[in-house]
Amino acid sequence: MPTPTSDFLAIMTERGFVHQCSDPNGLDNLAKQKRIVAYVGYDCTAPSLHIGHLLSIMMLSWLQRTGAGKPIALMGGGTTRVGDPSGKDETRQLRTIEEIDGNKDALKGVFAKFLKFGSGGGDAVMVDNAEWLAPLNYIEFLRDVGRHFSVNRMLTMDSAKLRLDREQELSFIEFNYMLLQAYDYVELARRYGCNLQMGGSDQWGNIVTGIDLGRRMGLKEQLYALTCPLLTTASGAKMGKTAAGAVWLNDTQLSAYDYWQFWRNTEDADVVRFLKLFTLLPLDEIDRLGRLSGNEINDAKKVLATEATALVHDRAKADAAAETARMTFEHGGLAADLPTIEIAKSELESGLGVLSAFVKAGLVASNSEARRQVQGGGLKVNDKTVSDDKASLTVADAEDSGVIKLSLGKKRHVLVKPV
Predict the structure, then answer these.
(1) Contact criterion met (CB below 8 Å) for 247 and 54
(2) What is the structure's pLDDT at 337?
(3) How far apart are CA 241 and CA 131, in angstroms?
(4) Is the pLDDT of residue 288 over 70?
């Protein structure tokens, strides 16, 4: 990619957001003219977004921060009814319209933390594609839109090809997804002057199909594509997965403290890369942190954890999480701000299996995972290593402090409060 001259593409490039761009020079000129109207689509498959969505949200945020144009957060109220096959080995579970609408409402709060919404030229807008997809007449859609698609070409797209190469089922409803996503781009161009779609690298085929559809349907202005890499950690693990599941952005799914801990546990080799992608720190400060070595790299990890958490959960919660960690790890204390779950006293009086307790606390995904952790000495109750996977927790375990402290390794803790 040529060296950008606009602030937006310079930041995208320097901080590692760019994987592919359909026309770097054209998009760079558009950014300098502050004429970009860019969208990213988010299907409503869960009540919270997760870290996998964070790169594209940051891209929208930087677009607005650099004054290069207007961000559009597209809610997939329509496309979620179909299900995106991209990167999936099996058909997504179809959700009811009530589930989709509930998830959509729950997702909206995340974007307000990254984008300024309003009616001004550079203010972000939130749109739902159900607005134009739900009323579609199928026969008219096939005649007006479907005729522009080649099945031969669609079968070469990764979202279809990977399934077929593995002899895995690709349903007809999923096969239609790329038509709907392409049509989204055309409708947004018509309604809002949208000229850029951004997303993960797995969306490249769908995005350029939208560009081609716009040309075939007579759009006059050029459309652009910009994708970010799909991240893995330095060790090759999928970014944003833990033993207990996805790293959610909504604090009802994952507490600010657990979110802070996720970033604190970053591998040494990933610290600089993640500081560039997931914080707003200046590059010279990131470069300084990147020169830390030995035990000092932990200071850089704490900065990463606090800055990343401040963006999603706010500064006060980030600082509180950092202080909780300091008290717990550096002073061996029992910080009141540790994540807490409540369990009925009656359940403890009859004895709660230690494996089940760790599953309830969200520290492990299953009893079998808890059992493996016991075998490796990874679980502790009240700072004492669990050696018997058939042990039980009782009310007596909470007598000293009123809570039972469950620990996975040295850095993840949950308090159990009898009620």
Answers:
(1) no
(2) 60
(3) 33
(4) yes
89 confidence band (pLDDT: 50, 70, 90): very low
Residue 164 tokens read as: 């077929």
* Residues carrying an active site annotation: 45, 50, 53, 88, 92, 181, 202, 238, 241-242
Q: Cα–Cα distance between 225 and 198 in angstroms, integer?
A: 6
Please write down the HEC assignment for all residues of 268-300.
HHHHHHHHHHHCCCCHHHHHHHHCCCHHHHHHH
Q: Is 88 helix (H, G, I), strand (E, B) or coil?
A: coil
- How far is residue 307's CA from residue 323's CA, in Å, rounded to a whole number? 14
Polymer length in residues for the chain? 419
Tracing tokens 């399934």 back to the chain, one arrives at 163
* pLDDT tens, position by position, 204-237: 988 999 999 999 999 999 999 999 998 888 777 7
Amino acid at the residue 227? T
Phi first, then psi: what are they for 384, rounded to 5°? -110, 130
Cα distance between the two ends of the chain: 59
| CA 159 to chain CA mean position, Å | 20
CB 17, CB 277: distance < 8 Å: yes
Q: What is the DSSP secondary structure assignment for residue 338, as one 8-state letter?
A: S
What was the pLDDT predicted at 211?
A: 96
pTM: 0.78
Which single residue is written with the structure tokens 């995106």? 84
Confidence of residue 341 (pLDDT cuts 50, 70, 90): confident
Find the helix packing angle between 315-325 and 256-264, rounded to 10°: 60
Q: Which residues contact 285 (CB under 8 A, 6 or more apart)?
A: none
What is the C-alpha to C-alpha distance for residues 179 and 27, in angstroms, rounded to an integer?
24
Pull the structure tokens for residue 95: 């959700």
